[in-house]
Here is the input.
Amino acid sequence: MGVVALVPAAGRGERLGYGMPKALVPVDGVPLLVRAVRGLFDSGRVRHVVIAAPPSDVDVVSTVTAPLAPADGAVHVVAGGAERSDSVRLALTYALREIPDTSIVLVHDAARAFTPPAVVSAVVDAVAAGHPAVIPVLPVADTVKQVDADGVVVATPDRAALRVVQTPQGFDAAVLLRAHEVAHEAGLGATDDAGLVERLGVPVVTVPGHPDAMKITTKFDLAVAEALLVGTGGAP
Here is the structure.
């Protein structure tokens, strides 16, 4: 099966305060995007990665990521859209048009730059086994409260049934395309591609995620990654 990973990386990342696209922010001198793409290829399951970059940075992103591809694969960089869902749709359209035999699609956040390759493999294996949508998850450690518009607690969900979602999320390519087409026609966006698939009534199954797959969004997250993950055996 042809496995292609899509990486929506057109966000500006203002909260990191680097004055550059979030995906290009360095962790110990290596851009988040480079670490994320390297981890995808290191899984041994991905041969092509399609990155949706800021339109003004397509050439820069191509330069820093092209050398990461294996001899039988490639990194493809396209101009991303205004919203994350736009970037995923543009990258997916490119993959289905330009990369032969694309049948399994992963959607991965560059901000989850330290996702272990084993998580990538587990997601691919589950899709290949016949599940049309697969997400890596972790149990919720904290108590969660549901509140109303005024901030008043209305319920305390049982955290035993709750999960924190990570990436890469894996899909049958045709299912993901249909989910994005329906959402686009309805004017809907999403920060979670599995959520779009759920709207189709397609079951989404889970596989175990990993603590190293933390999302780097703030300066604090960046400091944690540099202190705990850089140079460890689990960091790509």
